[in-house]
Automatic annotation (TrEMBL):
<keyword id="KW-0175">Coiled coil</keyword>
<feature type="coiled-coil region">
    <location>
        <begin position="19"/>
        <end position="60"/>
    </location>
</feature>
<feature type="coiled-coil region">
    <location>
        <begin position="87"/>
        <end position="121"/>
    </location>
</feature>
<protein>
    <submittedName>
        <fullName>Tropomyosin-1-like</fullName>
    </submittedName>
</protein>
Length: 162
């Protein structure tokens, strides 16, 4: 904001208007900071949900891999019994499980990419939040300095009036 020199012609109404304007700007900056804080919290909640989904997908992947191993053993058993029908059924199940694993790996990779994106956004929002807080601090300091100058001018005017 531009610096304004206080002249002896400044009225109490102008001082009140100036004070209200500063208060309004501070409220606006606080609203911006609150907005970014809410965005940050929303992204954290989305990130946690994605992490839970990722953990569930990883558990499902492990379960499916164990099932594939189990089916592989079953396949070996069926080969020893020379049962062509059971063998084909087991192979179909294994292929189905492999397809499921590929799908889950794709979903897992997608979730990992989404988490990376959310973490990058989280970093950006932290910077934005910090910047907003700095702006509020700077405006508070400028307002304080302006009030001090106004008081000094008012005191000087009172001494001149006396």
């Amino acid at each position: 904001m531009k610096r304004v020199d206080v002249c002896p012609m400044t009225t109490p109404e102008y001082n009140g208007w100036w004070s209200r304007r500063w208060q309004q700007e501070i409220q606006e900056e606080n609203a911006k900071a609150d907005h970014w804080e809410r965005k940050f919290q929303e992204m954290q909640m989305r990130n946690e949900a994605l992490e839970r989904s990722l953990a569930e997908s990883q558990k499902e992947k492990c379960r499916l891999k164990a099932r594939v191993v189990e089916l592989g053993r079953s396949l070996h058993h069926n080969r020893s019994h020379n049962s062509a029908i059971e063998l084909q059924s087991s192979l179909n199940k294994i292929e189905e499980m492999k397809g499921n694993i590929k799908k889950l790996e794709s979903v897992l990779q997608n979730c990992e990419l989404r988490i990376e994106l959310l973490e990058a956004r989280e970093g950006h929002w932290k910077v934005e939040l910090h910047h907003s807080h700095d702006q509020v601090k700077n405006k508070d300091y400028l307002m304080y300095e302006s009030i001090v100058q106004i008081r000094e001018v008012a005191d000087h005017l009172q001494t001149l009036a006396v």
